[in-house]
Amino acid sequence: MLETRERTVKKIHKLILKAYVGPMVMTFFIVMFVLMMNFLWRYIDELVGKGLDFGVIMELIFYGSSFMLPMGIPLATLLAGIMAMGNLGENYELLAMKSAGMSLMKILQPLIVVVFFVSIGSFFAANNLVPYANRKMQSILYDIRQQKQVLEFKDGIFFNGLENMSIRVDHQDPETGELFDVLIYDMGNGNGNMQTTTAERGFIRLSDDKNFLLVTLYNGETYETTRNYQWATKNDLRHHTFKRQDGAIPMDGYNFEHTDTNVFSNSQTKTIVELEKDIDSLNLRVNSDALRSYDRFLRQYLLKQDKNILGIMDSTEMDLSYKKPVNIADSIKLLSLDEKHSLYLEAEQNANESLSALTFNEDTAKEGLNQLYRSQVEWHRKMSLPISVMIFFLIGAPLGAIIRKGGMGMPIVISVLFFVFYYIVSMMGEKMAKEGTWNAFSGMWISSFILFPIAVYLTYKATNDSSLLDTDWYIGKYQKIRDYIKSKLNKKLK
Fold this sequence. Notes:
Blueprint lengths: L1 H41 L1 H4 L6 H14 L1 H22 L2 H7 L4 H43 L12 E4 L2 E8 L6 E8 L7 E13 L5 E16 L7 E16 L21 H31 L4 H4 L17 H6 L3 H67 L6 H26 L4 H24 L7 H23 L1
Antiparallel strand pairs: 1-2, 2-3, 3-4, 4-5, 5-6
């Protein structure tokens, strides 16, 4: 009997795994596709018109997708949990399992194990893959920004994508690429000289290695104006005609080149171990900068006349028992008008010097403090991701068991609402932590602290088959509260 029950439980667990893994994979790719489209939309202006190879674009998409993993995995876990348990509830399979004596936690046991390993995998992805992908993505975007636009001539419009050169064509043959009625203004000498070339037709294209602009023109004229330091009154104009003219102009910035990824190093491109080293060194740097800033301020500007107060003298020499407090206001009254004026001017000068010194040193200390905050935020972001994955599952699975609706309709709406709430709270906490208003722990874990009680509450409701989303249940509760208030009011009126 016991063996039969164990075999039944194993079959049920296999059924639940099949019901969950499929939606998990599907929703993961859907979520990553949506996030990737948002990523491409942000950089679409920088990608268009650069003549990028398909391989470069695919490389950017791959690294961009990897960078989006910390956002995609929790949302996919939430959506898959709602869909899987909603499908089981809608088909009364979940009801049959509970009728057989299985509790909700027993039913979710294999899914909890799966999600646990997913959360562990998300940590390694965020710690190892995401920093590498972020570094590569920043490198590719930088290279794309540095690359100039491809040669693209439009009829009757000047093309100014070349440095010190402007080209206008009346018409371009779309099949052969031949240009007609070509006009070229070339100011490439950099000394004020300008060369104007007109031609009936020709070809202008980049070389295969994109290092040279190859120009071939037919039946044209060239005008070159040469100017000297007396260009306003004296200049030379040279003119010649040609039947064919060939030229190769060196070009720079049209060939896509990869920049060393080590140049792009910040808190988002480092692992947990590297961030811990940075945090330790930045703590020392911030303390040292702050101490050096205020120590110099006190010694050189604020209290530079009284060495004993600053503790510069040896403790054996600092016998202050015989000294009495001095009333500075009474001492100033004894000074003459000229002495008071000189004293005030000196005080004003010292105040301005001390303010300048303190401002400069504070800016240096603040830069280190900002780097410290960002490193701490990234450290806690990596640590909080696995917990958020588990919390989203504990929200999604019980919620799916309660609403008992499968498909892509209701689960998507609920998932998006929860995720938007999570995202807004996370961004708010991250902003506060980076500004130093909150510590990094509070800022990066506040979303988990808020969602965890919700997950516990939903799990409790689903375990006890509570009517969380039953409108009749809420109407009944409302009527009971209303009747109770009415009875209390009637008693008071009597």
